Amino acid sequence: MTAAVQVDGVSRVFGSGAGRVVALDDVSLTVAAGQFVSLIGPSGCGKSTLLRLIADLDAPTAGSVQVFGRPAREARLAHEYGIAFQQAGLLPWRTVRANVELPLALAGMGRAGRRERAEHLLALVGLADFAEHFPDQLSGGMQQRVAIARALAEEPSLLLMDEPFGALDEMTRERLQTQLLRICAETRAAVVFVTHSIPEAVFLSDRVVVMSPRPGRIREVAPVTLDRSGSLEDLDALRTDATFFDEIATVRAALLEGVSLAQAEGAG
Ligand SMILES: Nc1ncnc2c1ncn2[C@@H]1O[C@H](COP(=O)(O)OP(=O)(O)OP(=O)(O)O)[C@@H](O)[C@H]1O
Questions:
Q1: pTM of the model
Q2: What architecture is domain 5-80+156-267?
Q3: Which of 7, 11, 12, 14 for a ligand 1 pocket mutation test, highest count of atoms within 8 Å of Cβ?
């Protein structure tokens, strides 16, 4: 089966001379179709850069990125992606509903279908009552939820998310994490998800990619084995399950090891 994402020997260097930054150095990663993969690591280790390369918002200095077997550019033009980044990136002159409908309108979907889908998505992220509001009438967290609804609009086969829940309060964050898992199970979308939270990465992911900075590298890919096949209540119950805490400890150890290895190499 074709991988959702195939990153081969990718490097990305910014600047030159004294200002040269090796944001990514020879990074390779495969994300299978339907798989949920998180990128975690200290600030500046290249998580966002890697996501932007997969999204074709930037081009690698060396190496290649394939999405569903074709170059990232082609995949983007074929609307394979849904993207939700740190900044919600909503159009301020459009209502919440119109923002969510935008990708559907661009894809040529009729008015009634668009409206129905937008209502469903806004209900999913808990914003059904805010459809006629404008983005600047919402809190940052609510804007982020609109961006998530928009990213899901076209039922993409690949979702790229850069700390989408970072600005949310803990309860909303947990609710959206659970909903995201449900949506992914329904749509079988693959997800590449950047986060600073180890529990979030563990709760959501089939695999957690641990990165380290200067130069940005993949240190370890930790598989997570949690049974996410149950109901929404079962999923929530996982948060207090011993296996969840065991997996957190494993990823945490990998992260600490990655950082100390990077420091040792930097010193050497
Ligand atoms: N457009 C750019 N021009 C110059 N340097 C850049 C650019 N984008 C990223 N960098 C550098 O590349 C490195 C990796 O940045 P990136 O944003 O990918 O890290 P990150 O792991 O996502 O960090 P954070 O967790 O803080 O968001 C950093 O040193 C950053 O300064």
A1: 0.90
A2: 3-Layer(aba) Sandwich (3.40)
A3: 14
